[in-house]
Amino acid sequence: EPLIGVLALQGDVREHTAALTAAGARPVPVRTPEELAAVDGLVLPGGESTTISKLARLFGLLEPLRAAVADGLPVYGTCAGMILLADKILDPRAGQETIGGIDMIVRRNAFGRQNESFEAPVPVAGVGGPPVDGVFIRAPWAESTDAGVEVLATYEGRPVAVRQGTALATAFHPELTGDHRVHALFTAMVRARSGGGSR
Ligand code: GLN
């Protein structure tokens, strides 16, 4: 089973841990550069992207995260995690930094006050079966994506699931639904990258 870290600074770490286990991975919390160096893949949970980026800087993890992702470590970000994977934030808060990895610009809290949180069926390319139950909680969307970015899902015309190389991001939260197909897709990406072997 691939060893998949969950960045455990803030956010819905427990839910991702359960989803990864159900998807056939071995999840482990990551809070230090040493723990990061040991994993075959990494999940960036939902939560508050400003807080996560500040804590990552404080824990000495921001540069190691940037280096690992740039080096091709498979990474999956949900919601706040998607924001962290964006090369650029349209409306960053003061001091807010990203890890980068996906050539896109994200808009935070994009769906607006009237529609802060909602659920909608979202067909996701590469995920077989019925649409994924998209749980959106003050979710971002990709305002623009470069040519190298695969848009796997849109909602109301906005990209809400994207992939570039070994980096995957969803604006919604499959970890809150009990449906592990997106985590299974990510686990397959991790397996492919680590040559099918397990450590
Ligand atoms: N709006 C939050 C942010 O900017 C993300 C919310 C979430 O992860 N559910 O980080």
From TrEMBL:
Positions of the catalytic residues: C79, H173, E175
Catalysed reactions listed for this entry: L-glutamine + H2O = L-glutamate + NH4(+); aldehydo-D-ribose 5-phosphate + D-glyceraldehyde 3-phosphate + L-glutamine = pyridoxal 5'-phosphate + L-glutamate + phosphate + 3 H2O + H(+)
Keyword vocabulary terms for this entry: Glutamine amidotransferase, Hydrolase, Lyase, Pyridoxal phosphate
Superkingdom of the source species: Bacteria
EC nos: 4.3.3.6, 3.5.1.2
Pathway: Cofactor biosynthesis; pyridoxal 5'-phosphate biosynthesis
GO molecular function per UniProt: glutaminase activity; pyridoxal 5'-phosphate synthase (glutamine hydrolysing) activity
Annotated positions binding L-glutamine: G47, E48, S49, R108, I137, R138
Cross-referenced InterPro entries: Class_I_gatase-like, PdxT/SNO, PdxT/SNO_CS
Function: Catalyzes the hydrolysis of glutamine to glutamate and ammonia as part of the biosynthesis of pyridoxal 5'-phosphate. The resulting ammonia molecule is channeled to the active site of PdxS.
Similarity comment: family membership: Belongs to the glutaminase PdxT/SNO family.
Binding partners and assembly: In the presence of PdxS, forms a dodecamer of heterodimers. Only shows activity in the heterodimer.
NCBIfam families: PLP_synth_Pdx2
Designated name of the protein: Pyridoxal 5'-phosphate synthase subunit PdxT
Originating organism: Streptomyces evansiae
Species lineage: Bacteria, Bacillati, Actinomycetota, Actinomycetes, Kitasatosporales
Gene: pdxT
